[in-house]
Specification:
Blueprint lengths: L6 E6 L4 H13 L3 E6 H10 L8 H4 L9 H4 L5 E5 L22 E5 L4 H6 L9 E9 H6 L2 H11 L7 H9 L4 E3 L13
Parallel strand pairs: 1-2, 4-6
Antiparallel strand pairs: 3-5, 4-5
Length: about 190
Amino acid sequence: KHNKDIKIWFFADNVSDDNLNKLKRICSDNSTDFEAVNVRLILDKLKEKGVNGYDNAIDKGLTTYARFFASDFILDGSRALYIDCDTLILGSVDELFHINMNGKAVAMAYDCFSNKYKRFIDFPEQDSYYNAGVMLIDTGRWDELKCTDRLFYHIQNVRNDYPLCDQDLINIVLKEDIMLMNMKPQAEDSDEL
C-alpha cells in the first residue's frame, strides 16, 4: 500500500500455494511485482558453498540465509532491502534507496544486546551490534567485498553455532562493512499501527 512499483522477492519455506496466491493477488492489486523463491534453492546454494553438515539450518530457519544471496536476484548492482516477515511497513521506504552508504555493503539499525551476550559470542564489547531484521544491501558493494564468501568461510572454518545464527554472523564477519541506519520514529498522532 505504501510502496508501489517495487519488486518483492518472497523467500518461501513451506508456504501453501493458497497463501502464495493471496500474496500474489495483493501485490498485483497494488502494482507490485512479486516473485516467490523456494528456499530449497537457497539450500542448494549453501551446498554449492561447501557448507556441509549444516542441514540443521532448516531447524534454525533456513530463510534467514536468503539475504546472503540478494545479489543473485538483483543483477544490476543496485540496492535490496531485506525485511523480516514480522516487520510492519507504515510508509514509503523509497528514501532508503537514496541514502549515502559511504562505501559500506550494508546499512542496519542498532540492536540492544548486553555486553554479556557479546562476550558469549566472542564479539568485542566496545563494538556496535546491529539488528538484521531490516537490512539495506548495496548488492554491488556486497559482491565487491565478497561478503557471501566471507560469511560462509566463517561458518565452515571458524564457528557455526551462534544463537542468532544469521544476525551474529553478520555482525561478526561484516562489522567493518556495516553503516548505521538511522531510525525515524512515527508521528505520535499517526492513526496507523
